Structure formats: C-alpha cells, structure tokens
Automatic annotation (TrEMBL):
Record organism: Enhydra lutris kenyoni
PANTHER family, A to Z: ELONGATOR COMPLEX PROTEIN 2
Compartments, record wording: Cytoplasm; Nucleus
UniProt keyword terms in alphabetical order: Cytoplasm, Nucleus, Repeat, tRNA processing, WD repeat
Annotated protein name in UniProt: Elongator complex protein 2
Superkingdom as given in the UniProt entry: Eukaryota
Pfam family membership, one: WD40
InterPro entries for this protein: Elp2, WD40/YVTN_repeat-like_dom_sf, WD40_repeat_dom_sf, WD40_rpt
Amino acid sequence: MVAPLLEITHVFCCPNRVRGALSWSSGSGGLLAFGTSCSVVLYDPRKRVVITNLNGHTARVNCVQWICKQDGSSSTELVSGGSDNQVIHWEIENNQLLKAVHLQGHEGPVYAVHALHQRRASDVELHTLIVSAASDSTVRVWSKKGSEGRDLFLASCSQDCLIRIWRLYIKSTSLETQDDDNIKLKENTFTIENESIKIAFAVTLETVLAGHENWVNAVHWQPSFYKDGVLQQPVRLLSASMDKTMILWAPDEESGVWLEQVRVGEVGGNTLGFYDCQFNEDGSMIIAHAFHGALHLWKQNAANPREWTPEIVISGHFDGVQDLMWDPEGEFIITVGTDQTTRLFAPWKRKDESQVTWHEIARPQIHGYDLKCLAMISRFQFVSGADEKVLRVFSAPRNFVENFCAITGQSLNLLLCNQDGDLPEGATVPALGLSNKAVFQEDIASQPSDEEELLTSTSFEYQQMAFHPSILTEPPTEDHLLQNTLWPEVQKLYGHGYEIFCVACSNSKALLASACKAAKKEHAAIILWNTTSWKQVQNLVFHSLTVTQMAFSPNDKFLLAVSRDRTWSLWKRQDIVSPDLDPVFSLFAFTNKVTAVHSRIIWSCDWSPDSKYFFTGSRDRKVVVWGECDSSDDSVEHSIGPCSSVLDVGGAVTAVSVCPLLNLSQRYIVAVGLECGKVCLYTWKKTDQVPEINDWTHCVETSQSQSHTLAIKKLCWKNYNGKTEQNEAEGAEWLHFASCGEDHTVKIYKVNRCAL
C-alpha cells in the first residue's frame, strides 16, 4: 500500500462555548463528538487522539447529537446544528465521513438538535427522526427512512439551581373509578392526533433535585446498553452547573428517593463552571465541558465504584490561534491566541506504549489582553505580544523543566545544566495583575499550612500564593494547567505606541525585532532589541502602515519585513568592528508602488534555508520568490527582484513557510496557507529560462477533513538539527509542519519527503 503524501498526526482543539456542543456515542469504543469553531471533531478518549474532522458548516457549530442504534451497537450517524442556519446529518463508516446531508429551512441559528431511529407499526424499515430548534422561534421535525408504549422520564434544569424529573405516560381512556379521597399527583394532560387516531398523554412531576448552588446548564441520562442480549436502561442522571460541579444522581434502591451519588468538579482557578455533560456508553466515564472550552473527564474506579479519578483529555484554544513556534530543538510547540492564553504542547512518551500522543503540558501565560504573536528566544524562553504596547519576556521555571523531562523522556540533568542562574520554582499572578511573578523555594517554604492559615486568618483576604510544585508523570489536568504551569515574567519591553502586531528573533538569538499596529510612518518603525541587556538597539523606519510579519535570514545577515502597505523592505546587517557593539542594520532593498508585484496586503514571508531567496504571500492570491537578479545596474535598490514566475494559488494567501530541508530533487518545499483554511504544498527551483517557466510544482493540498475551516494564521516547519526525528527510522522520509488558524485549532502534519 502506497503511503499517503500528507497526513495529520495531531490536532489540538476544544469545544465551542455553547450548551449542547458535546455528545458521546453509544456502543463499545464510543467516540466523543464536539463542535469546535465551524467543524465537528470526532475524538477517541481511550486512545486520546482526534479521529477526524467533519467540515461542512460555514459558521459556529452550536449543537451535536449522536443517533443511538436500537441494538446498542456503536453509533454511525450524528446530527449537528450551527449558526449558519443549517442542520447537517452525518454518516460515518470506519471512522471516516461517508455522507453528509444538509437540511436547510431554518431562518436563524440552530441551537438544539435531537435524533432517534423509529419503527412504525405498519413498516419494517427504520426511520430517522431529527428535531431541531432555532432562534427563528421554530421547531422543525425532519424525517428520513432508514414505539413502544412505556413511561418516559424527562429531566429539565434551569437557572433556579434545581433539576426536575417529569414522568410522561399514555393516559388510559377508560373511566377512572378511583376514590376522590385518595391523594394523587397533579397531572397535566394533552392529546396528539395522528392519522385519525387520538392518544392522550399525562405529565406528572416525579421529583425535584436540589444540590447545585448556581445555574444548572445541562442534564444527561445514562444511555441504554445491551448486557447478555438484554437491553438495560440504568436510571442515572448527570447534571452540570455553573457552580463548577457535576453531580451523578440515582434513586435509592430501598426508598426510591433520588440521591446524590457522586460530585466532581473544578477547584480554584479563574473559571466559570460547566456548560454541558455526557456519559460514555456504559456509564464508567463522565465528561464535562467548561465555560472556557476545557474538557474534564472522570473515570470510575473498577475496584471502588464510588471513587472517580480525573483522566487525560484533549485540550486547546477556545478562540482564534494567532501564532505558533517550534522550539529550537523541534520537540514542542508554543501557541498564542485571542483567548488570551499561551499554551505549550509536547509529546507524551510512555515506556510501555509505542504510540506517542501530544498534549498540552503547560500554560505559561494567562493574560488580560488578546495575544497576537510570539518568538522563541531560547529553548525555554520566549517573548509574546498582545493588544497592548508592551512586549513580555518569559522564562521556564524549574518545576516545568522537571515535568517536561518526566513527560517527554528527556534528561533532566542535561537540561538543567543548560539553564543559567538560580531558576524559580514556578510563577503566580497577583490579584488584579497581569505580570507572572516568580516563586522561589524560600517563598514556598514560608507558606503556612492550610490548618495554620485557618487558625491565623482574621479576614477573607485574597491569597496571592497559588502555585504548588508537583512532579508529574503524565500530562496535567485543567486544574493543574490553570494554577501550576505559569512561567515567570522576566522582562517588559516598552517602546511601541500602539498594540504589538508581530515579533521575530534572529537565529543567533541575539536580536529581537518587533512592530506594532500603525497608520503613520513613525509608528510603523521596527524596533530591534538586544536579548541580553533588553535595550533598544535601533529603529528601522520605512513602511507607512502596519508591518505584518518579519523574518531574519538563516545566516542572520538580513531582516525582511512585509507590510499592510503592500511592500516589503530588506535590511542588511553591517559588519561589526567590535564584538561588544550591537549590530546595525541599513536598508538594502525594497519595493514601492512602481516596483511592487503584490496589489493587496502582504500577510506573510519566509526565507529559503540557504538565505539566497525569500518568499512573500499576499491577499492578491500571489506567492513570489525574490533574490539577487542578474542585472548590469550597480544600484543597490535594483539588485533584488523576482526570481520566479508569479504563483497564483487560487485564494488569498495568509501564511507562507519554507521547509529547512530540500526534497530529494533538491527543490525548495513551500507550504502555503489560505484564507479559506486550506494548506497547499509546492516545490520550487530556479530555472535558467527568462521569464521563469515551470519553476513551480504543485504537490498536494489538504482535503476537506484535513483543512482548517477559517483563515490560517501561521505555518511553521519543524526544525531539523540532528537531535530529533531525523535520526530515527522515519526521520529521513517524513517532514513535519504545524498550522494554526482562526478556527481555534492547531494541527501537526507529516509530509512524505520521498514523494514530493
């Protein structure tokens, strides 16, 4: 079997922040389906991997529901509703999309869906019934070809913190002869007429459950399952509330009174409770969906059924992901997003399993502004920019390095030897503050114990110290990520007049370049910083509007900048007389309104690994390669020009990245990200023809399930330096790159180098 050219290896995402965006399929090996941005993600909680993405909605997915089979086997159909006014019926086969049917009719966003299989009395075939409710104040029932009379229990929840269980049953048409003195529950009756047949139903209030202290957002019955060929229907109810707890309810076996069996939830952290909850197929696992997108998974202890332990589950940004970077060794990824968080994803390498899964192992920054960009200063140091005028520099604490080594299998002594100075243990955020404050060993030692704190506390003062060091052997839970994985802030960089937009670091890690939003030339200046003293080195003034991206050449001789003003500028480093002096850059080449090739904003740029050429991508759908031209003119301004034919990729270009390795034919490998969410791979090599012809080769592009559903913000190839997978069995054959986008997701792809 021929290996595919392009595969997705890992996906990081989380559910949308709406009720009903989560559903767990019935049957063995049930998959978890949830809406993330405009996609429906199928996730396997046992293997801890994303199985596939279902792309079809054009706006946020608001609700998802698996359709349970009557024989208790694994579900293969699900239905989803979105803000695009659509209901989509999906059919799955072998964990891949078989067919999608778009049901159009609503005139407003769809917020609730439910579906079931039904067999009519006069028909042998099963029929699929789908019910959808939307903000257009309509409930629609959809029927597709494809009941028995018994009591039904309906659970409802509301903002009064209570759960009510209602009993729905068919009311007997015979005359009632009961004594009026008997006490009986008040019942409401209604009649349904179908094909001249009238059926009377009655509804009574069975019980009221009080246990939550805030709004109850969701209730979910444990699904039925087959045991020894007999259909079992456990009477257990799960509820999720804004009080950060999830409660498992069941009637007492002797008295029949509904009681709380298990209560689980979040402790600490700046969170706002749960939106939704679900059982797995046999009730041994429960999951909650939190306000900030996080999933919380608990598993029942087989030896002690009343004990539930937290489990590892997928996590990711709950808003657009703006930037990402591989670490210099190519062993983890750091991302920033408009959800105001910085997240670090790394592989979990277990001794007893060959499969490696990636997880979020740290959340170095939880900010108060939307984050826009970042750059790696060293392996465990980065700088981030947000919708503020300040750049912030972060360094990894000792506790993170210890946990990183334990989870990824790295040598702790080797990593600690490369760290300078006395590392803090961790970090914490003061009340009403934005800066992560370092926590040292002596700070932890001086903390009073919980008992001492209770005895000596005279007021309800906010306790600033929230960090507690711990050694992990597996990826942390959401509670741990929120409180114990922050990195201390070591420096603030002031100098820009408006919100930071992009940042880049030289390959020698000696210089940092930053730029901010600008509408005038003086504000569009690029500031160069010394990463040792953190002092400003130089201001580079040329562009008249916002600089959208910058890139240092691999040999650090040039700095390239592209701008919203549709031009690029190339700055050359001057020869340094003394090693103690900071490098100075001067304008080497540029384009203007006359020489410009791009007619729209230039979003992205990157260098070839040999520093000979640079690539630019624009909203005008063009990708152009630039380099030194064979010209008789000695003027510096005209020494750089287009070296390729203009590549039209068919859509607005938002990201360009060049692989640090060439393919087997010694051609440059270029990844292009589009505004529609698609990633295209090309190879390019300069030819001797004038003009350039057939220099570009289209290799592959992502399929619908592999693509993002909104604009791609950044593409980044993995670094290959002889210490990573390049030395392993598949290292010479497979290349890796990561992507992030406005659809809240981060994806890692692997590319078959031999097939390019």
